[in-house]
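Handout, section B. The chain below has 168 residues.
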Amino acid sequence: MQNRFYLIGYMGVGKSTWAKRWAKQRSCPVHDLDQLIATEIQMPIDEYITSQGELAFRKVERSVLHATSHLDGIISVGGGTPCFYDNMEVMKALGTTIYLHAGVGFLTKRLVDSAFAGNPRPLLAGVPIDSYGEFIGKHLLERLAFYEQAAIRIAVEKEDVLARLSEL
């Protein structure tokens, strides 16, 4: 039985939420790569990126991802994690990769709602809310080749996500 699963996908698709729900159902550990990184750098990720730059962040992200080799359970990763360095290959070698995907409209609505709720995403800083859809569409297209390398794909808008995950 596989003991390590990586949930990947674009920001706002629900990776962290589904990881927690599935881990509860499986009675197994759940890990959020962003939380592991924040612990490593001892500050919020957005502050680290502002002070050190994205390249420095991606290097730390890669190192922390490699360190997940000793963890069992379900690991949710940031939307950009699979797209840098050899991160996708590392996740595929260490466990089962699961791509949670959704359409641009679904993602845009969730990210707009999040911004209005006072939880804007750092990547969208400076993007006018009425341009989120266009930005997300282009950005998702850039990342798609990485996401589609996942062993399993689940359409969060069309499928019973927990039921699909439970089959694994």
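Note. The longest strand covers residues 96-101. Compare this with the example in section A.
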